[in-house]
Amino acid sequence: MRSSAHARLTCRTEPAPELLDPIMRFRSVVLGIWPTVLSTRNPREPALDGPITELREGINGSVPDALIGFQDNVREPRWQPWLNERTVRAGILKMRAGTRYPAHDHPGSLAVSLVLAGRVIVTGFESPKSPASGRVVHLLSLGRRLLRTGEFAMALPEYGNVQELSALTDVALLDVAISRFRPPAHYWYFPLGPIADRFSEVPAIALMQGSP
Question: What's the rounded Cα separation, in Å, for the pair 185 and 104?
Answer without folding.
Answer: 11
